[in-house]
Structures are given as structure tokens and as C-alpha cells.
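TA notes. Do not distribute before section.
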Amino acid sequence: TEGFEDLKKSVSQYEPEAVEKLTGIPADELRKAAHLFGTAKNAVIAYGSGITQHLRGTDGVRALANLALVTGNVGKEQGGLFPLCSQNNCQGAFDMGSLPDYLPGYQRIEDRKVREKFEKAWGGELPLKPGLSLSEMFNAMQTGKMKGLIVVGENPIIILPDPKRIKEALKRLELLVVIDTFLTETAQKADVVFPGATYAEKDGTFTSMERRIQRVRHAIP
């Protein structure tokens, strides 16, 4: 295990009594919860957007991942992390390559052979390096390095932490295009808005976080 001593050092200041003062949760209850989770044969951590949309959301998810790792609940059946996304088909979108550093099937974009395979299939050239992460994109907007943005079926002003910062970053864009089924807070700030198709108007699949694939057929021609 790498970094275990560093982890011990970082959490050593958070005795249950100290955490009780910060959270209001009784120290005895914290100890009971820790014992229950630590001694369970299999344990799953399910977390929702309350963590990921927090200003320190990345740190929160990392803490949960560390908890799963130190208790041996990663890489086995009936264990691990289970994010409960606020939008449907997040997993399906990830599987299809809607990530800055992966192509479909979680194949690294830096791999030349992988790039060549998709370039041949798609009939075009792919970048040699990964794109920007979501946080990096908004940093680039604030510094003026990113001039335009297309938002599809998303509302970053509401779902991302620090909405004031998000609004300020979007204002710096020269062009903001939003494709959505609703006139969201983000769409109201856009230069161009296109209507998006609902799930009832499209064929495709939804993939749950359990990797269960559900076929979807359009109901409206």
C-alpha cells in the first residue's frame, strides 16, 4: 500500500471528539459507525451529488476512496464506491469516452495504437494529449485561454460548486452555446440556445452504475 503513513498523519488530528465539534455528530456514534464499517465483511459506500457539488467535492470523494482502500473494500464483489449521479446515464457516457483523457472503452488517448484505431474508424485526426478537466476548463475561461464553450444537457451554474465563480467564468467567454430541453440558468446566459431532444425522442441505451445496460427506444418520431 502506497501513502498509508501519509494518510495516517493527515487524519491523526481528527479524533472523534474533534469531529464532533465540527459536525455535531456525537463521538460515540462516530466510533460505532467506524467499527461497523471497518469490521464488515463487505462494505459499499454510496454517495450522491451532495458531495460532488460541494466546494471541496474532490477532497470528499478522495476521502471516501481512501476509506474503501484502507478497509479492503476495493476490487472485490459487494464492495467499493457507488456514486449516485444526479443525471441518468453518467456511466454510459463515460463508457463511450466522454472524458478528457479517455476514448471509448477507457482507452488512453496518449496511446498511439489506440489513437490510430479510432482515427481509422472515425476518419479523422485525434489530439495527441488529453483535453482539459472540468475544473481546468473553468480556470481557462477565467484566464481568457478558452474563448468558446458548448454545453449539452447540463447546467453548470447550478450543479457545480461556487456558482459565483462559474458565472464569472462564463461571462468571459466570447461564445456560449447551450443545447438543452429546458431554458436553464446556464441557457439564459448563452449567446445561442438550441432545443435538445428528450430521451423519449431518441434511440440508445442507458447504463447504470452497476453496469446494467437498458435499451431505450424513442416513443416520439
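Switch to the second chain here.
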Amino acid sequence: MGSVTPFAGIATTSGGGARSSTIPRSSRTGGSVGMTSAPSRSDSLAVLVAGASGMLGTALQEVLGKLGMRCAAPAEAEFDITSPPAIREAVRGFSASLRDGERGVLVNAAAYTNVERAEDDRELAFLVNETGAANLARAARDADLAFVHVSTDFVFDGTKSGAYDETDQPNPVSVYGASKLAGERAVFYEMPDALVVRTAWVFAPVGANFPLKIVAAARERGSLSVVTDEVGSPTYTVDLARGILGLAGAGASGIYHLVGGGSCSRFELAREALRLTGLQDVVVEPVSARDFQMKAARPANSVLDCSKAAVLGVTMPLWEDALARCLARTLLS
């Protein structure tokens, strides 16, 4: 089918132009659609975001704004998580701005996420994902702020037959996964009552994410090859942001899994993204992950069990519904 592109899990070939159209307004039906919980105005959270320019950081700012809650989102140059002095200054200023009745929360949405490059850049991956996370947790502890650290399905090896829950033993198979697991452990060392939220297959209306890459590749080329033997739960950043705030508002601590409802393969996700964007006539060939020459191993099973979060009233919409909402925004923007 042609040469592999830089897109993880996608191969493309040249061909005729693909048809495109506006996204259908309605999402796929079938199954229950959970509503992500988020704190009400009375919870009075004020949130300082590390990684504010990223996909999740952007969503956190959007959701907090709609809830009428204050959000501090310093630029990376002012809030370098690998620089303890920069962190102390940002946290000190944020803490001083807290109003009576507000509960301050520091959310770490910053990370080194280039899975392939991390294999050759181990030092930087661990500097950001372990040392940076520890720096933030320490600063939050010293300032008496709640701390939320965002982690990943890559802490698991993907060999389990069912969904991973929070009690399953991590066993990362890549440098990226190892650096994120080290970050989790560093966070709990610095702040035992921190909240670690593991998520997976994150997508957004903008940024480098799988559904948008699929749609872009389909519009440029005549056919795609997408893996069928990697399974996970696609997660919309807006829903994830609301879920994180819901857990923080409930005073949760420890490890929680938070992903979109349901699960699918990369192939199924690609087909749905193309259907929603009017590109369903694009040929998509199912292939194995073994057909891609990747440096980093990836978990074949990234499905996470979110039952623990549901006990606190935090549930996530089905991934199909979330994808429809996300792509509608992408095409209308």
C-alpha cells in the first residue's frame, strides 16, 4: 500500500482526490451516553495549569471559563516545569491571588509525548516527565495546593485481555511509558495525596492527534492503511478536562483512570472519523502494527476501566459521541 508516513499507525498512498463534506449534526446512536461531571460554581476551584498551550491545557481553560472559575495559564517560558525557580515564582503568584473560599489546584498537563523520539532522547523524556512532575508536586505541596498529574495508558504493556484498572501492575514497554510511570511515582513521593489521572488516545479539535491526522491524510491521498490490532478508548480533551475537574472537585486522591466510553481499534476509529467528515468513500486497508517499522513498542490493549471514577459520579461520554462533537467543531472553525 505504499510507504509509511510519520503518522503512528497510518500508512498512505497517493491517489485520486477524496470527497469531503460537512459533518453530520447528529452523532451515532446506540448505547447510553454518559455525561462528564464537573464541579459546580459553588465548588470555587481556582486552577493553575502547567502545559496550558497543549490540547488538554487549552480544554481546561475552555471548561473553566464556561464554569465561571478562575484559571491561570502561564506561557511555557514563564512556567518551565524543569526549572524549580520558575515554578516557585508561578506558584507563589497564583497562591497569593487566591480569594477567600477558593480552593487552589495545580494541574500538570505538560509532558514530553513524542513516543518515537523518546527512544533516542531518554534524558529529556525523563527530565520532563519525571523530574518536571516531581518539581510541580513539591511546589504544590509547599503551597498547600491540590495537585493533579495527568498520566497515560503507556504505563501498561497491553497484554491484558480485558480493561486495565487502577490495581493492575504497570509494565511499560517504551521509554515514554517508563518516563511517565517514573513521573507517577515521583509525584506520590513528593505528595502522597496527589491525584494521578491516567488517560489514553486523546484527541482535540486542534493539534497533532490521530483523528485529525487521519482526516488530513485522507484528503491528501487516495487510500490509507490503519492498524487493527491496537485497541483503546478515544478520549476528547473537553470531556477529559471536565472529568479531571470533577475528580478534583470531589477531593479525589490516588490513581484514577479516565477515558472515553467504549473502545475500538485504530482502524475503527479511523473509519468513524472519515464517516463523520464525509470521507467514507476513502479506502482504508486494515493492517497489523507489525507492518509498521516503529522504534517504540506500543501497548496492543490500551482500554482503561473507569469504574473507580464513576463511584464519585464522574463518567465519560461514548467515544463516538465525543468524536462527532470534536470533528463538528473542527470543520466549523
